[in-house]
Design brief:
- The complex is a heterodimer of chains A (409) and B (515).
- Chain A has helices spanning 16-50, 58-83, 91-107, 113-138, 142-161, 170-177, 192-218, 226-248, 256-274, 276-286, 288-293, 298-324, 335-345, 357-376, 381-407, and strands at 164-166, 186-187, 190-191, 326-328.
- Chain A is mainly α and 409 residues long.
- Chain A has one domain (35-178, 255-407): ABC transporter involved in vitamin B12 uptake, BtuC (Orthogonal Bundle).
- In chain A, strands 1-4 form a two-stranded antiparallel sheet. Chain A has a two-stranded antiparallel sheet with strand order 2-3.
- Chain A is globular, with a radius of gyration of 23 Å.
- Chain B folds into 3 domains: 5-243, Rossmann fold (3-Layer(aba) Sandwich), CATH 3.40.50; 262-344 and 429-512, Rossmann fold (3-Layer(aba) Sandwich), CATH 3.40.50.300; 359-422, no CATH class.
- Helices cover 32% and strands 27% of the residues of chain B.
- Chain B has 17 helices and 24 strands.
- In chain B, helix 4 (118-131) crosses helix 5 and helix 14 runs parallel beside helix 15 (443-458).
- The radius of gyration of chain B is 25 Å and the shape is globular.
- Classes of the chains: A mainly alpha (409), B alpha/beta (515).
Chain lengths: 409, 515
């Protein structure tokens, strides 16, 4: 391109109505993305009321993150698969197989905990590569490939594990059980380390948002209205602050698994939003033909998406095995459905092309809060399932109806 | 010849939002004849047949249809089939994994109380197949027979509905010579059995050969109806004169040629159909493109222009592709889209919604999609630089959108087309192939697209402009190639180009190809 001075057509006059419409359009896209967080807050407040404040008791909050870490980690991988227009039904079985391999490695081959974790990621990635090969290069629909994988890896888990293999490595088991050491003591009943982490995160979040806005300004690009910008800063700071204060008052402070989940969320949000790879995932999910005709190597992207969810399933296997202190052949049963539900509650589109890491995490937390709230209330587990199913159905129905209305405007 | 009309369509007018597709069209079909309809792409032929068969139900158009002496009001295709009007579309409507017999009686099953009588189905199907000259077993899967025979199955299906007026839309476009000849022979046979046919075709020789009467449509109007057995013989020149002559009503920007060095040469390019692998879709095509030159590709539907372009662009169409591509005299390979883009060849598709855009993503991300690597370092996209690029093209090309963060699907057709163009301009190709870039967009936006095309040429790019609108090609291009049945049948310089001359080449039979 050259001749930037060549102005062919008078563009529409800026300002006035057009600018206002632009502002609203920008907000409209974001409003839907914030909807799931609003729903999460509403559900939390609802259960806080019905459980007489027991839902947000510090130890319950810590337990919420511990118990739902597996869904969050899997949902990260799953939402990428779903955005690309695929599905993965095998992750639960993969978790069991990898868990078994890890336990055998520590028990029979005397791997230390770190080697065992690395092995889990490698084995998970290899399984992902196996499935990605069939999907990307042979062209079998992911539904079939991963349905087969669900059977294959559940079977292999039984072969490797038998019934169960205990894990005795203290450090390995501590990945789930332990928290960041409370070396700075407590102020009142609050853990200082946790508070410090929370404060640091708030500063980082504010700085990151301000810098992004300044950079936009510098490049003469449109920025969000100041009100929206301020509201976003306040809400994110408030969110981090509340979680940090609650956790600081729990028995152990900040669980390691929360740190792991948080790091993964940050990394993958970056991958999906800022990298070429992330863009290509959205592109092939939105219109595979157009992506191909734009030079995107769709097969390579498909392959690595499955490798990626394999690695994350390996990470989940570590979390689950550490939590139980033992590898079970039946571990991970139904995890794929939890992860898929989290993605769809979080606004991912069944047809691909739409979805966010943050949405999937919020979806996972919605499911987690429902579980915990209903359990505290003493609702029968059978009815809990019914309620979770209905929530999934209503969330997706709400999304579809909204979209249809927007489409017919 | 008396006036025993089986069908009269009187003063038919059909409007779509913003377009009048049919404007006061009259068509009278004599009982027992073969009546041909010809016209350019977009002349309204298919629309007229859709009105007749009830695909556009009564009430969505103006005018009257008189069938067998009675005014009829079809609300659906079922209504028209009930009185014996059957339409066979260009894209066959057969279910590939069902048997021939099942297809023939689909929706009209030989059954009692909901239980299919397979013996009746197969024996009746066998009789119908014999009537159309097919020897296949009725149990054969449709997917296992060729396109030519599938076409005959469609006719057998029509016969099963006791057809009295058979309408065929481009029946021979996808057939080889032998199958075409067989089909035309069959139509003559049906005529002897008293079945009236309407045939739409681009193959003028075929029409002159088989039709009793020929009606010419142009721009949604009836131009004339000719009697093929009249005292004065109808010639293809006569038909061409009627078909073209579309007025040069949208003005074209002043064009100054800046033709430079040769940038692209395609030699002896041959492509076969991806499924029907014995059929040549592009047959030994040769073209050259120079820097700063706008080269038009003219052709009727099925001429192979899009297939030619897509097979060059990363082999995205066809199998058994052979031929050479030279860029600035050096042979290049364009086996994948990535390779093609790297070699400086870009292709903007004719179907922007299906193949050109990610409608559920933003304008900005659509613009950067083909050259994202230019905006990324170590795989990380510079979002601000990307937004600047998108903003630049929004201003330069005049894309009307509140913001580049708006979804591409929310834009109008013309503005979507500008997004597609932006995407490829940003990829900085040396040769840009534009496939029907002005299709379905309004006149004002068309003018802007012409300006953009000229500007690209002025910057020294070679532009290949595929269009079905001859005035547009003549008004914009430096040189025009005409395609017919997969071959380049003519090359016309700007100063010599007339619609009649181009149409002559475009309807030329491949056997008499001159170059």
């Amino acid at each position: 391109m050259s001749s930037p001075d060549l102005n062919l057509v008078p563009s529409e006059p800026a300002g006035g109505f057009t600018a206002l419409r632009g502002r609203l359009a920008g907000l409209g896209g974001n409003a839907r993305q914030y909807g799931i967080f609003a729903a999460l807050v509403v559900i939390i407040l609802l259960f806080e009321a019905t459980t007489q404040g027991r839902l947000l008791m510090p130890d319950n909050v810590a337990a919420l993150f511990r118990q739902n870490a597996y869904v969050m980690v899997l949902a990260i991988g799953m939402v990428m698969v779903i955005i690309a227009g695929h599905i993965d039904l095998s992750v639960g079985s993969v978790v069991a197989t990898v868990g078994g391999v890890v336990a055998v490695a520590m028990r029979e081959w005397h791997f230390n905990w770190l080697l065992a974790v690395l092995l889990a990621l490698v084995v998970g990635g290899a399984i992902g590569a196996w499935q990605g090969f069939w999907v990307a290069y042979i062209g079998i629909p992911a539904f079939i490939v991963t349905l087969a994988g669900m059977l294959i890896f559940r079977g292999l888990a039984l072969v490797v594990v038998g019934q169960s293999i205990p894990v005795t490595d203290r450090t390995f088991n501590g990945i789930m059980a332990n928290s960041i050491p409370n070396f700075a003591g407590r102020v009142g009943d609050a853990d200082v380390v946790t508070l410090a982490i929370g404060a640091a995160l708030i500063v980082l979040a504010v700085v990151a948002q301000v810098r992004a806005r300044m950079s936009l300004r510098q490049h003469n690009l449109t920025v969000e209205p100041a009100g929206v910008f301020l509201a976003k800063i306040v809400v994110s700071a408030l969110g981090i602050g509340v979680v940090a204060v609650l956790l600081s008052r729990s028995t152990d402070g900040t669980p390691y698994v929360l740190v792991i989940s948080a790091v993964l969320i940050v990394i993958y949000t970056f991958v999906m939003g800022r990298t070429v790879f992330g863009r290509h995932i959205y592109a092939i999910g939105g219109n595979r033909q157009a992506a191909k005709l734009s030079g995107v190597d769709t097969r390579t992207v498909d392959f690595w998406i499955f490798v990626n969810i394999g690695v994350l399933a390996g990470m989940t296997a570590v979390i689950v095995t550490s939590r139980l202190g033992t590898a079970l052949a039946a571990a991970g049963t139904g995890f794929e459905l939890d992860a898929i539900a989290a993605c769809f509650i979080g606004g991912a589109a069944v047809t691909g092309g739409i979805g966010r890491i943050s949405g999937a995490i919020a979806g996972a937390l919605v499911m987690g809060v429902l579980n915990q709230g209903l359990s505290i209330m003493g609702v029968d587990p059978s009815w809990q399932q019914v309620i979770k199913g209905l929530v999934l159905l209503l969330a997706v129905a709400y999304d579809l109806v909204n979209k249809r209305r927007a489409g017919t405007q | 010849m008396g006036n025993d009309y089986i069908l009269e369509m009187r003063q038919i007018t059909k409007r779509f939002p913003g377009v009048v597709a049919l404007d006061d069209v009259n068509l009278s079909v004599t009982r027992g004849q073969i009546h041909a309809i010809c016209g350019e792409n977009g002349a309204g032929k298919s629309t007229l047949m859709n009105v007749l068969s009830g695909i556009y139900p009564h009430g969505t158009y103006e005018g009257d249809i008189v069938y067998d002496g009675e005014t009829v009001q079809f609300r659906s295709i079922r209504d028209s089939e009930r009185v014996g009007i059957v339409i066979i579309h260009q894209e066959l409507a057969l279910s590939p994994y069902l048997s021939i017999a099942e297809n023939i009686f689909l929706g009209n099953e030989r059954a009692s109380a909901g239980v299919v009588d397979w013996n009746a189905t197969n024996s009746q199907a066998a009789q119908l197949l014999a009537r159309v000259g097919l020897t296949e077993k009725p149990e054969t899967r449709v997917a296992d027979i060729g396109v030519g025979k599938q076409q005959l199955v469609e006719i057998a299906k029509a016969l099963s509905k006791e057809v009295r007026l058979l309408i065929l839309d481009e029946p021979t476009a996808a057939l080889n010579d032998e199958d075409s000849a067989h089909l035309l022979g069959l139509l003559r046979g049906l005529k002897e059995q008293g079945i009236t046919s309407i045939i739409i075709s681009h193959k003028l020789n075929e029409l002159l050969d088989i039709a009793d009467t020929i009606t010419i449509l142009r721009d949604g109007r009836t131009i004339e109806t000719l009697d093929n057995h009249g005292p004065e013989p109808v010639t293809d020149e006569r038909l061409i004169r009627g078909m073209v002559g579309r007025s040069m009503d949208h003005r074209f920007p002043e064009h100054v040629s800046h033709v430079g060095e040769e940038v692209l040469r395609v030699e002896d390019w041959t492509v076969y159909h991806p499924i029907d692998q014995d059929r040549k879709v592009v047959d030994g095509a040769n073209i050259t493109v120079h820097r700063g030159e706008i080269v038009g590709l003219a052709g009727l539907m099925g001429a192979g222009r899009t297939e030619f372009a897509m097979s060059i662009f990363g082999r995205t169409y066809g199998t058994r592709v052979t031929g050479r591509i030279l860029k600035e005299g050096v042979e290049i390979q364009t086996h994948t889209v990535k390779q093609a883009i790297r070699e400086g060849v870009a292709y903007a598709t004719e179907d922007r919604k299906r193949y050109g855009l990610n409608l559920i993503d933003t304008v900005q991300r659509n613009i950067s999609a083909a050259a994202l690597d230019k905006l990324a370092r170590h795989g990380i996209v510079d979002g601000n630089a990307e937004a600047r690029v998108a903003e630049r093209y929004r201003k330069e090309l005049g894309i009307k959108t509140p913001t580049v963060a708006a979804l591409a699907g929310k834009l109008s057709g013309g503005n979507q087309q500008k997004v597609v163009l932006s995407k490829w301009i940003y990829a900085e190709p040396d040769v840009l192939i534009l496939d029907e870039p002005t299709r379905g967009i309004d006149v004002g936006a068309k003018y802007e697209i012409y300006l953009i095309i000229q500007r690209l040429a002025a910057e020294g790019k070679g532009v290949v402009f595929i269009s079905s609108e001859l005035p547009e090609l003549i008004g914009t291009c430096d040189r025009i190639y005409a395609f017919s049945q997969g071959r380049v049948t003519g090359e016309v310089a700007r100063d010599d180009a007339t619609q009649e001359l181009l149409m002559t080449y475009m309807t030329m039979d491949k056997d008499v190809t001159t170059r």
